[in-house]
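ingest -> fold -> write
write: protein_1
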Amino acid sequence: MNLPGMLTPDIGLIFWMALAFIIVLLILAKFGFPAIIKMVEERQQFISESLTNARKANEELASIQAKGEKILCEAREEQAKIVKDAMATRDAMIKEAKAKASAEGEKLLQEAKAQIQVEKENALREIRSQVAELSIQIAEQLVMEQLKDDYKQETYINSLLDKIEK
């Protein structure tokens, strides 16, 4: 089979192509590859530094989170303490208010009892006075009725005198 010339290269073409390839390879080896290797190493160093910085940042973040949790825990403890103190103060105030109210109530009750006793004594005194006055008026009316005539008066006076002498 006879293949066209483009598909089957001549030995001269292969030589020149190989020579061009070797020259390009040498130029790349002299100038290109060192630059590429340098850029790759710089990139590797940048990535290493970035990873180191990221680790440091993670450590700092963990430290900050730990500090934040510690501060939050302390704040919760302080809040609980404040609430406990407030409840104790509230209970003490309620207890004190109840004691004051009880004492004031007892005082008012005693004053009311004393007032009632005074009013009762005044009422009894007034009733006794009125009863005595009514008794005198009734006795006076009875004596006047019984002693209307002179004979009854004399008899009554004599009986009284007899009682006095005895």
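write: protein_2
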Amino acid sequence: MILGKKIIVVMPAYNAEKTLEQTYNEIPFDIVDEVILTDDCSKDLTIAKAMELGIKEIQIHEKNKGYGGNQKTCYNRALELGADIVIMLHPDYQYTPKLIHSISYIIANDLYPVVLASRILGNGALKGGMPKIKYIANRFLTLFQNILLKQKLSEYHSGYRAFSAEVLRNINYNINSDDFVFDNEMIAQIFYSDYEIGEVTCPTKYFDNASSINLIRSSIYGFGVLKVSIFYRLCKWGLMKSKLYK
């Protein structure tokens, strides 16, 4: 705990057997109270590895629910267990657990209710091996989103993020997509509800066992992000209504 606030790390897992142990071993258990791993019907031994590591909270999907669906299970369970701060950490070791202290203190001290670990602040993205085409797409989408959402985030596409329980209770993330665009729908909901988002610089690693989506899925994701941003602005202008913001 920090300042009496319970911290739960959630790990949405899919075929994370090879990287789970390294990720788990760097989690700072001096402040983290519990870890939840949600396995989205992995084809490898992710569940066995999680049990070997002693992870007690393992949620298992009988059918693959997708990246967004996996997160829903994570957050719902964390709230059930009484989390005050929920940190999503990918178990593929692309993001370092060593930032959990910094992220947690920002929320625990009521500086920001949501924190994103940004690969773009500094030179972490390209230095860590992010493909240039993904970097360029990231910068274009982020510019487009900042204009339509009237914000100034360095990036919207980091998978390393933390939330106060209040935010999770007050946005209807369960109605969001089960696919990758879930992340951006959630950020739009957060801003629509007038919460602020802080950022910290985060190094990242791209390697063979780190998860990554292919070009087709990336294109679908990109168009989804554009749609979310346009609908957000139309809703803000009162020209349409969306179930995301009810």
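write: annotation protein_2
The mean pLDDT is 93.
The domain at 7-245 is CATH 3.90.550.10 (Spore Coat Polysaccharide Biosynthesis Protein SpsA; Chain A).
pipeline exit 0
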